[in-house]
Design goal:
243 residues, alpha+beta, Aminoglycoside 3'-phosphotransferase, Chain: A, domain 2, three-stranded antiparallel beta sheet, 8 helices, 43% helix, globular
Length: 243
């Protein structure tokens, strides 16, 4: 009998694995619809949809293995990281998805709210929060929207050898800033930044990308703490940004 593995779970969504089948349970029908639509539009390999019966989406496992795990050294080759950068470029050059995503003004308001919560609840030192909030300012500027994955972290990119075999979890896909995806991909894996950029090509502002490291980390700590996850990788990034 095959065991049921809980891949990730919180009160909004859960992903279970049974053999080579992943079962995504999402109570937000609109978000699940958007994920299915984004997978159909994406110019990258995505998991095969085996069946769908809301709130459950059944997906086939992708070949290969994760490019890495948050907070842990990646064992993937430099060439695999180059391929991940090339995949990000291919996505960003695709026609825009329908979801508009957040604009700089909305992000700034969201960031201010999260920073206030982190300080008021003594989750992080005020100096760490305010210092990174200043760095994040560089990301809050007008941008030309592209097709962004929205959560292009290393655990969502699968590789086999030096090739990308697929990308998981398109629930946050929307129009957005290309630097946001690149920051998510290299967050806590800055040692592979040059490889990613070699695959991605021109047009990357390193100051903006680093600003997104601060912005993304500040915005996600509240969620991680509230859902029982360890924010240590993001906190380490925030500390490294200032020292």
């Amino acid at each position: 009998m095959e065991e049921v593995e809980i891949v990730v779970a919180h009160h909004e969504r859960a992903t279970l694995r049974v053999g080579d089948v992943f079962l995504k349970v999402d109570t937000d029908r609109a978000r699940a619809d958007a994920e299915v639509a984004a997978m159909a539009l994406a110019p990258l390999p995505t998991p095969e949809i085996l069946w769908r019966k809301p709130p459950v989406l059944a997906l086939a496992a992708l070949p290969g293995r994760e490019l890495g795990r948050p907070g842990k050294p990646s064992t993937a080759s430099p060439e695999a990281w180059v391929a991940a950068g090339a995949a990000a470029r291919k996505l960003h050059e695709a026609p825009l998805p329908p979801s508009p995503g957040l604009d700089p003004g909305q992000l700034a308001a969201d960031l201010d709210r999260e920073c206030a919560w982190l300080i008021a609840n003594d989750v992080l030192p005020a100096s760490l929060v305010t210092g990174n909030r200043r760095l994040a300012e560089a990301a809050l500027r007008p941008w030309t929207p592209v097709f962004t994955h929205g959560d292009l972290q290393v655990a969502h990119i699968f590789v086999e050898g030096d090739e990308v075999t697929g990308v998981l979890d398109w629930s946050e896909a929307a129009q957005g800033d290309a630097h946001f995806d690149l920051a998510a991909l290299t967050l806590a894996h800055q040692e592979h930044l040059d490889d990613v950029l070699a695959g991605y090509g021109d047009g990357v502002d390193l100051d903006v990308l680093r600003a997104w490291w601060s912005l993304r980390s500040l915005r996600v700590v509240h969620f991680l703490v509230g859902h029982g996850f360890d924010p240590a990788p993001e906190v380490a990034v925030l500390e490294a940004q200032l020292f």
